[in-house]
Amino acid sequence: MNIIEIPELPTRIKQAAEIGELVIFIGAGMSYELGCSDWNGLANDLIKRCENTLGEDEPLLNNFESTQLRNMLEQSGNSKKVITICNGILSKSGNDELFLEEMKKSLNDEKVVPTNPKLKTYRDLFNLNGIFVTTNADRHIDQIFSPQNIITSKFTGSTALVNKNLYKIHGSINEPASLIFTVEQYFTRYKDKEFIKFLESLFTKTVLFVGYGLGEFELLEHMYKNITLSENHYFYLGGYYTHEKRLCDFEQIYFDQMKVKLIPYSKDKKGFKQLPIVIEEWVKQIQTTTNVLQNNFDEIDEVLRNPF
After folding, report:
1. Measured between alpha carbons, how far is 41 from 48 in angstroms, rounded to an integer?
2. Per-residue pLDDT, 215
3. I need a surface site. Which of 136, 161, 302, 307 has the fewest CB within 10 A?
4. Are residues 132 and 60 in the same domain?
5. Considering Cα of 262, then 263, then 267, then 270, what sign does the dihedral take?
6. What is the DSSP string of 263-290?
7. What confidence tier does 296 reach under pLDDT thresholds 50, 70, 90?
8. In 33-182, which residue ranges form alpha helices assigned H by DSSP?
9. What SS3 class is residue 304?
10. Segment 78-106, tens digit of pLDDT
11. Whether the Cβ atoms of residue 145 and residue 166 lie closer than 8 Å to each other
């Protein structure tokens, strides 16, 4: 599998974008550039908050207990488990607001501004006229959408899929009741029949995953268990070093089980900062073709209106 700086734009993605049938799933990797922490960072911050918060007469977590949780996080890598535990500890002690404070800090919520130059990649993606879906809860991406085009709850089989809408399927930090972050909430969401119908409608289209790490693909695994997937409709744009060709081959074996085609780009020179460059180039290619087609249609319309 070739790993180059600007991978070839798949024809199916190009065609789907041109006719408004492209679904773009946006993962946590897109938020890191905007100063958001990953789930491990949030889990560690929550452990520290529990250590520094007094219960009736002692901290909610003593040194030994917090060390146990940190070891659990390090050994298992299961950040959602630790987040769920800390959320339970804070909730039982009547400190729900402290959990929300830590969530906002991890999402860099104080620095959400529409003029942030790092939103350029989001704006490039927005120009693809796609249907946008994200599991991210931060408000940074919200800045390029109209408020009425952001949906954070009540996902059903009858939810309309509208181009340039943003569907935040794990909720939003500015609507705490919509958030999905504990194990129980994940189980409830992905067992909900109406939510599964919503996912099914999404996956009848061409889907591009951007900014997703392999750890986040447990989301797709949940989907895989409940919906019927199509061949050659799903793509994952991911960064690799050029010497990792064999790793790409291995990961494609994994993705084959979910009918996802891996599209690797080289991060040798710029790391994950290469992703915005790839997206910018792809957008140019799609817009160029779309503009040519539109110009052709305009010329045909003109001839039909004025045949002589």
Report:
1. 11
2. 63
3. 307
4. no
5. negative
6. EEEE-TTTGGGHHHHHHHHHHHHHHHHH
7. very low
8. 39-51, 63-76, 79-92, 96-106, 120-126
9. helix
10. 888 999 999 999 999 999 999 999 999 99
11. yes
